């Protein structure tokens, strides 16, 4: 089940919607390209096992 998350690009700071897939894991990392500047960013997706609430943390991909 995909989850729609509001994120902000760490390069160009444009807000956009990303579809993340938390699956069964409590934490997963996905790499997506910004829809505006096309640079890669890491999305860390956390799911709270009790509330089911999903948190998305965005950082620049490639260790920059
Ligand atoms: Zn961007």
Task: Describe what this molecule looks like in 3D.
- There is one protein chain.
- The protein is mainly beta.
- The protein has one domain.
- 0% of the residues lie in helices and 53% in strands.
- The protein has no helices and five strands.
- It has strands at residues 3-8, 15-20, 27-33, 40-47, 54-60.
- The strands form two sheets. It has a three-stranded antiparallel beta sheet, with no helix packed on it.
- Strand 4 and strand 5 form a beta hairpin.
- The N and C termini lie far apart (31 Å).
- The model has no long low-confidence stretch (mean pLDDT 89).
- Residues 9, 11-12, 14, 34, 36-37, 39 line the site of zinc ion.
Topology:
Layout: E1 3-8, E2 15-20, E3 27-33, E4 40-47, E5 54-60
Antiparallel strand pairs: 1-2, 3-4, 4-5
The protein binds zinc ion.
Zinc ion binds near residues 9, 12, 14 and 36.
State the share of residues found in helices, binned by percent: under 10%
Which secondary-structure class do the elements indicate?
mainly beta
Oligomeric nature of the chains: single chain
The dominant shape is elongated
Q: Order of strands across the biggest sheet?
A: 3-4-5
Task: Please give the count of helices.
Answer: 0
Helix/strand order: EEEEE
- Quote the beta fraction: over 45%
- Total domain count: 1
Summarize the structure.
The protein is mostly beta strands. The chain has strands spanning 3-8, 15-20, 27-33, 40-47, 54-60.
Properties at a glance:
mainly beta; 3-stranded antiparallel beta sheet; 0% helix
């Amino acid at each position: 089940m995909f989850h729609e998350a509001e994120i902000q690009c760490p390069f160009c700071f444009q807000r956009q919607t990303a579809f993340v897939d938390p699956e069964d894991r409590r934490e997963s990392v996905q790499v997506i390209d910004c829809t505006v500047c096309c640079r890669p960013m890491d999305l860390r997706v956390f799911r709270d096992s009790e509330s089911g609430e999903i948190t998305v943390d965005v950082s620049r991909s490639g260790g920059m």
